Amino acid sequence: EELSHGKLSNGAVLFQSISQIAPAGGIATVAIIGANFAGGALTLATIVSVIACLLTALSVAQLARYLPSAGSLGTYVSRGLGGGTGFVVGWMYAISELLIVSFVALLLGGLVAGVCNAYFGWPVTATWVVSVIVMYVLVAVVHELGVGVSTRVQQIISIVEVLLFVALSIALIISAGGRNSLSVFGTSHGNVKGYIGAAGLFPAAVFIITAFGGFETAASLAEEAREPRRAVQTAVVGAVLGIGVLYVLTSYAATVYFGPDRMGVFAAFNGGDPWTGMTREVWGVGWVVLFLVVVNSLYGAGNAATNVSTRMFMSLGRVGLAPRQLGHLGRRHTPVRGLVVVVVIGLALAIWLGLQYDPITGLSIMVVASTGLYIAIYILVNLACIAYFLRYRRAEFNWLKHLVLPVAGAAVFVPVLLAELGIPAFSFISKLQAPLIYGAYAAVAIVVVAVAAAC
Fold it and tell me: Whole-angstrom Cα distance, residue 417 to residue 406?
């Protein structure tokens, strides 16, 4: 059984990456958690995260020229580093994307519940649980209408959210007036207790990279693109550059408006919804538009991550690295059985962790788990780029593109991974604390099980 070849334009593939990043949702929700660690150095932490992702995007673009496959990163690592490693990465990637759908649903549920409780008195727990369920139902419906419908929905959502946050950032910068300063691009305002100066940059990057993660997901649509090699290359690099600029702009705007020395409490402002609070101050009732755009953005991210995770499970089943039933496609050439796995497991995780802790803590644990898997995958993809061109494309090997940049891309993620795992190997690294560290333990467990299965 095959996916719908040639169904998607280059633009549709690009917006797969942008939708997975979910700029509005990432900026207004997950990325703000980074301020708990970086404080007023949030802008610098954002720049570090963007550079790390860009270096990996360049390696993905190089591999996409020759390996267009729905298996995406799993295929790249398998060809470069061997089938066993590719098997492990394939499972890590499928599960990390499943986790993204789950924590995005929980994030959307928590946001809707907070607003509806404040303005309409709706019960918080019941509201977020129903919101999570509704999001999964909508994601499943759009997914089964086919990849063409799914990607068109993503394009519309992404264009609106990018334009809104550019306009809002400009408004915040103007309102900040004399508080605008280049000092926020350094570590002098990193004043969070236990994470002073540069110590908070890499713990903050755990969350910013999650908010930025997904730029590479266009690779999973390669088999359905009209120009798979060109489309994926353009999408992954273009998404990082374009949305990277937006993330730096918004982090700067928030820092100078809110006050760099107050950024340690930024994530708690306005009941944990600081962007809505700032929007109300500069745009009045315009916060309602922001709220609706962020909710749409989170839905778009869940939709995009579902596209990737279902195709990864399908790809694993198709080659016998997972139950072959997962390789089955529905009548619209969609991975219907992979969708069942994503919905059932993801929905159960979201509701369980949300009830066990609270929506924000529950999603934060899943963010840490997903980011741990992502970072390990990104490191391996960079190494696979080196190995692939040395082993199979020696005549085209370029020292800068196929060695220096991939090595730099792998190296810049190492401190972030150490911070997540609670290993303060360098003086500029501070580790995460419980219960967030439980997400790191879960990521390690996933890797151990995958390695054991591969052996």
Answer: 17
More confident residue, 319 or 270: 270
271 phi and psi angles, rounded to 5 deg: 65, 30
Residue 152: pLDDT band (50, 70, 90) is: low
Closest among 358, 416, 352, 396 to 201, alpha carbons compared: 416
On whether the pTM is more than 0.85, the answer is no
Any idea how long the chain is? Answer: 455
Q: What distances in angstroms separate CA 99 from CA 32, 51, 164, 387, 424, one per listed residue? A: 19, 24, 27, 29, 26
**What is the Cα–Cα distance from 317 to 319, expressed in whole angstroms?**
6
DSSP 272-288: H-HHHHHHHHHHGGGHH
Specify the pLDDT at position 15: 65
Q: What three-state secondary structure class fits 225?
A: strand
Q: Is 125 exposed, middle or buried (0-12, 13-18, 19+ CB in 10 A)?
A: middle
- In whole numbers, what is the pLDDT of the chain averaged over residues? 84
Q: Would you state the pLDDT for residue 209? A: 84
At 334-390, the pLDDT tens digits run: 677 888 888 999 999 999 999 999 898 998 899 889 888 988 999 999 999 999 999
pLDDT for res 38: 94
Please state, in angstroms and rounded to a whole number, the distance separating the CA atoms of residues 59 and 405.
8
Residue (of 372, 37, 59, 288) closest to 46 by Cα position:
37
Distance from C-alpha of 311 to C-alpha of 339, rounded to nearest angstrom: 9
Q: Which of 32-41, 211-220, 410-419 has the lowest mean pLDDT?
A: 211-220
Unique residue bearing structure tokens 């690779």: 219
Cβ atoms of 67 and 75 within 8 Å: the answer is yes
Q: What is the DSSP string of 175-190?
A: HHGGG--GGGGSSTT-
Provide the 3-class DSSP secondary structure of residue 8.
strand
d(CA 9, CA 378): 26
CB-hemisphere CA count at 13 Å for 245? 8
Determine the pLDDT at residue 67: 77
Q: What is the C-alpha R_g of the chain?
A: 21
Task: Assign 155 to helix, strand or coil.
Answer: helix
In this structure, what token pair is assigned to residue 296?
């749409």
Q: At residue 71, what is the residue type?
A: G
